[in-house]
Amino acid sequence: MNSSALKLRRRTFARVLGLGIAAPLAAKMAWMAGAQPGERPVRLMIFYVPHGWPIEHVDPGGDGNNLFSDNSVLSPLAPHSDLVTVVRGIGMNDNASNHAAIRATLTGFADGGSGDSIDRVVADALGVQAHVLGAVPYPAGAGFHSDAFLVKHGTWVRPTESPVDAAEDLLGDLGPSTPPSEPGGEAEFRRQALQLTERELEQVHDAVKGLTKEEDKLALHLESVRSLAAGGGGPSLVTCDESPTLPAVDAVAGLDPLDPANFGLMLDGHLEVAAASLACGTAQVLTLQNMWVNADVAFDFQGGPGIPKGHHDPISHSWDSAGRTEFATCQRWFYERLVAKLVSTLAATPDPSDPGTDHSVLDNTLIYVCSEVSDGANHNSDASEVWLDGAPYSNYLPALLIGGAGGAIKTGQSISVDRTNLDMLGTIAAAAGAPGVSLGGQTPSIIEEVMA
User: Fold this and answer.
1) Using an 8 Å Cβ cutoff, are 59 and 394 in contact?
2) Interval 35-44: pLDDT, tens
3) Average pLDDT, stretch 118-122?
4) Does domain 42-172+255-431 have CATH number 2.60.40?
5) Which residue in 181, 194, 266, 310 is a FRET match for 385, CA 20 to 30 A apart?
């Protein structure tokens, strides 16, 4: 974002706030005032999977020609390959490696550095809330500890474990009689918008008149408030009047979200909540953490890949061909669930926040799939060569972008770079509408090959 846009938004915010309009609504109006012509709404979702991947089942021969073939870890993404970008060659920044690299995955720095994770940084830049969900089961006798934390919002954040709780937090405010549960979040913004009178809307319009040539964007936002008050939807607003049906969430009601036997059910429930929240506009920035680096969950749970071995050891540690095939099966299962419960849903849903177009919610969403290590057996976190069955493979951190990001990125491609995950995070921020953000006191470089 350039300095003139920032100044414009500050001035708009000050004037609107001076009318007595609540801060969350004033901030949203300020954002709309500084929007570029034709700017589309962008949602950001981060999907973390531990232990990396077996590269020979992802990128055979290192040429990228079979990324979506039937036996690939990424094969579930084949129907949406035109909206998938695979970034090859990413290594962890700041020499972070092995288990502890989980804390650098979204911050860019070993042990989390001095700043927040990218979800919080982007959310702050957009004036929205960063939400954190997690399918994080415990094996018996284990527990959440330092190598379990992925997200940092000032302090390390433990994700919401139950999809039932997540649905209540993110979708429970939908409907005319339910009070808001997040005073500073989207529910409060919607409530404040609905309380504005027609006179107040006119006062806002008069107060910001002449501030910007982009008055049409702010006018569009004011019209969306009127539309919502009349029972309709509108851009940059919550677009669902009631919570969608959530069968996967209903299926886990009363179940222990930390019981490893329920892991598959919990993941489906969280993905269902995420899809509904992104489509309805109750979440714009959302992270979903799956397990953590040494969560040794047996993968024979209900709905899983049917492998009665621990995901951390021996599955991710496997070196022999049979074991690495099992590892590929387990990692492919995550993509199967991601596609079935979220990607396909967003692709089939017209974006209610982008009226007058044929864009789907997925067209205007950026899903970042990531991990803390490159190769599970090596437990390395860099881009380097690994030898498997006497042959070399170019290995790298999983770094996948799914969705069109509102037209901000080039999709349907596999690119090779020599960059760190810090630059990857900066690129994600730019694509999500927050360019030039600072992470740990540094401004990451943008991977231009990704950008449109």
Assistant:
1) yes
2) 554 467 799 9
3) 96
4) no
5) 310
